Request: fold
Amino acid sequence: MIASIDTVESGLAVCLLMTAIGCLFDRHLLRACWLLVLFALLMSTAWWYLNAPWLALVEVILGSALTGGGFIYVLRTLPSQRLWMPRYDRTRVEWPHRLTKGLLIIAWSIMLGVATQFLLPDMALSLTAHPLILSSVVIVSLGMGAFALHHHLMRRLMAFNVLGSGVFLMLAGMAGTSPSAQALITVGLLIAWLGSLLGVLLLRQLVHQEGSAALNDEYAPVRPPS
Amino acid sequence: MIWRFGLYDNTFDPLWMTDWALAAVLLLPMVFGALGAVFRPSRLLPVALACLPILLAGGVMVLDYQQVGLLRWQWEVAGIELTLRLSGLSALMLLITQWTAAAVAVYTPGYLRLTLPNASVRWLWPLMGLLVSALSLIWLAADLLILYAALESMGLAAVGMLLLSGKSAALQAGMRYLLLALVGSLAFLLGVALLMSQWGTLDLIALEARVEPEPLTWVAAALIGAGLALKAALFPLHGWLTPVHENAWTPVSALHAALVIKASLYILMMLWGILLPETLFAPRLVAWLGMLAIVWGGLVAWRADSLKTLIASSTVGQLGYLMVAFPLVLGPNIAPLPLSLAWDGFWLHLMGHALAKAAMFMAAGNLIIATGESSLKALAGTSRRLPLSLLIFGMAAVTLMGLPPSAGFTAKWLLLQSMVLTQQWLAVAALLAGTLLTAAYVFRVFRYSFDETAPRHDYQPLAPGMDAVALCLAVAAFALGLLAHFPLGLLHGGGA
Amino acid sequence: MSSLLLVVALLWPLFVAGSTVWCAYRVPVQQRHFISMLWVSAAWPALLLAYAGDVQWTMDAWMLGGYWELNALSRPWLAFTALLWSMAAFHARGYFADEQRQAQGGNASAQRRLQRLTLLWPLTLLGNILLIVAQDIASFYFGFALMTFAAYALVVHNGTPAAKLGAKAYLVLAVIGEGLILGGFLWAAGTSDTLTLKGVRDTLATADHGAWMALLLWLGLGVKAGVIGLHVWLPLAHPVAPAPASAVLSGAMIKAGLLGWLTVLPLGMESLSPAMMQFGNVVLVAGFAAAFGAALYGIWQSHPKAILAYSSISQMGMLTALVGMGIVVPAVWPALLPAIILFAGHHALAKGALFMGTSVSEHMPKWPTSLLFLLIALPGISLTGALAAGMFSKWGVKHALYEFEQERIIALLTWAAMGTAALVTVCVWRQWQQRQRGNSHSFQWGAWLAALIAALMTPLWLPLPEGSVIAPPLNEWLGIIWPFPVGVVGMALGLLALRRFDVPTPPAGDWWWGYHSLATLGLSAARLLAARCGRGKTTSVALALKGERWVMKGVLRGLSVESWMRQHGGGLMMALAVLLALLLIWEGQ
Reply:
């Protein structure tokens, strides 16, 4: 069984996982953005590896260039002269919050793992039989958890991107790259890009109007006296 | 169960005219939306003229359905099968969507003229067109790919529209909504991915035939359920709803509360009907959450300070009624009579609420424009100065409270009957408590409006037609209750 | 023909009332005749009707369906009632002549009072006629209520504080009485689904709670008939009412209660329930208590009309006792009923004549005083049974009772007649003391004389069934007559004996004052209780407010969860997904 491990696939899976974790949990925003770009490039490699060159191209253009570029563009052009631009997320997260989210991540991993086990019976014999699927399950759970955990809106948006990629990877890994699956993934990528674009523009407008404090999800704008 | 959604093979092909009507229904809203961005209509007449062909096309489709029965379209593009179908239910939802959206569209020019919004107004018409198209597609879609694409376009269009007011609070709320909606649809997609990997199809009819009760199906159903619950603002995932409506433009709020959240609920009902035909606990859980939603939404609305918060919270409570009906429609071993009653009640309530909530938002919007403030306290003295707007608000509230002769009453009556037949006394109690709470927050509004201690005289006059449109919707909600045999006939027509 | 007469009899008083209103607006006050001959004629058609023979009418359109009848009971009743009303109206023309002059002279209060009286007098009469002819519940009750409440104006006419007190007492008792009657009627009508008085009578005889219904009706009607305990309005209202009003009050209206008893109580019906027999005994005892009590209390009064009022109570007490006999010894009833009718008719006219006599003694015509007072005393003597019609009515009762060997009752009645004699003596003596000359009017004494003659000749004109009036045989005369001289002599001796002592006059209205202080006590107790309740209410409101604040604080604190839910949408969705999956898997496995 050990011999059947595909080193390229495993390496790809590990790289994907590492960049995803880095992107999700790095408090340095710019570095996280670059990691996201890297993650998107790795994803397109994975598509290539899964025999979906069309998807790889779309991923490079939409995921890596446009979405990642958008993030970096926003971070660079945020009006840092008005306030000290937080390139670093300093939001404090309480321990109970972290703990519950950690538990939820584990729960999701188990839930998705159980589902994939039923789908691919050979996974039951060896967890490492399908490293890409395994890593996608972990990425999805982590992405979901990170999304729920963070308060910083930009980090949540990035978590959404990572989560989306994980979902697509899982879809492609399990269902193969049939035309239907490819169409589904393409639509998903398109939507993710549009959503990210909208989100990024919104963030920019928010910081422009309210200052960087508005980047926190818990921030409540002061209502103008009516 | 699944035939009620029209997921079976048709006997007759659609007429050629119906194909054109379908194209018009799906494409014309977007075309006119784009035109609206260019010409920016500031009068009622061009908008009404633009609505007319779309409404006609919808009417043609419904007529054809009544003659032929289930209509089905299937295309294959690059190896991908795309399926649409028009069942009685989708015809009904299509009609409601088109007419409500038309009312909102007719209402919009006057609203925009009075509020003098910022430059972003040019986006309103195309987004509205996209939203209507996407909604129509959702009612018609019979495969998961189209469903997903339409759901996502609808979601993005809705977010875009809600952001248009440009206030910081709107942006903040819109950002939260955007993130949650995107993540919700990813959860939905994850479920779809699991289904597709196991059963190898996206077509709903094929899926229904192949699907079997096993853990993968359950996990997929759970993921789909959670994702759609988030998008449909089902308790306790409704937190994003109130701030979003609080800061949005009135026509946008009306459209969103009336139709957008209902689309997610429709998909949820349909997919769970396919995946979980005989389960007990999951629909029960939804029902329990629904009872909490009824009480919670009522309480929040009761203590609300601003009119729009009140209406948005009331949506949460009203969705609770629909959630309570889940085990009556989905559970195992339900006798045909309560099942049929609950089914009718569910959809009638959904449609009645759509009409009434749109009317209520418009009436509230009129009051807010006239008084210049959105708080309840600013309503003091409106009883004498703005009796018509208050009357419309009251008529819409009658539907929400479920008093006769409104659609809300008929729907609640059907649901109550079904609950009594299946002996779900807790749900009955929740339904009655919800009615009381609804009355409490509605009469709170009237208490403020009948307060004569703060006489004001500087009310902004309303544009022509603004009250009339809202009144038409409120009356339609009444008519739906009085003439319930027509919608119910269409609902039952799915089995013909 | 008789139907037409009925319509006229009922509409004529209405027309008269309408004409007074018309005059009030159309005729200038200087030329207005408040008491015109038209007004006097109000009761004449009814009088004619009484002699038109036995008739029945049914009218479905009238209220709940009208059923009216002139029969052996209602015909003589209508006859003496209408006759008395006519006489009283004549008398009123003389009695109010002075007041009318004042009114024409511009005295606004006199105008107002006369206007009120002339409007409500015919209405009272209308009620009285209607209740006599009515045989269905609704008509009877309507007539009774109309008569009762319209008569308020007759009592309160003078407007003095004493008149107001009398009217108040009258009204309080009347309202209580109406309530009792209505309760009894509704109970009976509801029990057996009947709408006629005859049906009520049958219900009372047969229903489970018939005795209680009978008690309600007896007490309710007894307010008018002066049942002991409910009689208190009579001595308060009569002295203050104008003499013609007193005459009809005491002569005609008081008999309406008796008529009600005769119509609805199961008199002369065999095999009644034990409870009903008990009730009959109560009626009997109450009747004799009134007969003797009123006489004993009345002789100490100083106002002649108060004395006459007590005399009325006493006489009605005897009649009450006879009604009680109808329940206790049903067999006696067929013979007793005509005697009672004769008794009632005679008493009505005699008492009317006595009351009119009080006004004649205050405005004596220029006749020899002794002759005048002899005439004034005549109806009283007749009432004791010592003369003319009185002897006939006494003998009629005695005769009926003799047949069934009710000697004890006869003895009691005889002693009661002594009380009557004593009362009449005191009354005439008081009138003598308070006599005044001058200012007499021919209508005043003319009507009085007519009533006097009619009273003395009652058996001749009262349309009683054939053979029901029996002349007393000569050997019984002594037995009938002796109470009168004994009563007069006893009274005279008593008065002479007490001359030395200054006996204070007890207040008229006897028990009223007891009721009054009781009611005052009850009122103050209720006030105390109300204050207590008010305090309790204040505390409970404060408590409720406190509770509401507490609950509201809790609700608001609970609602802060909303913002928590808002910020944890993602986490909640994850949790929901897991929960749903767990539930589904658990159920599926």
Notes: Chain B has two domains: 1-277, 281-496. Strands of chain B lie at 71-77, 80-86.
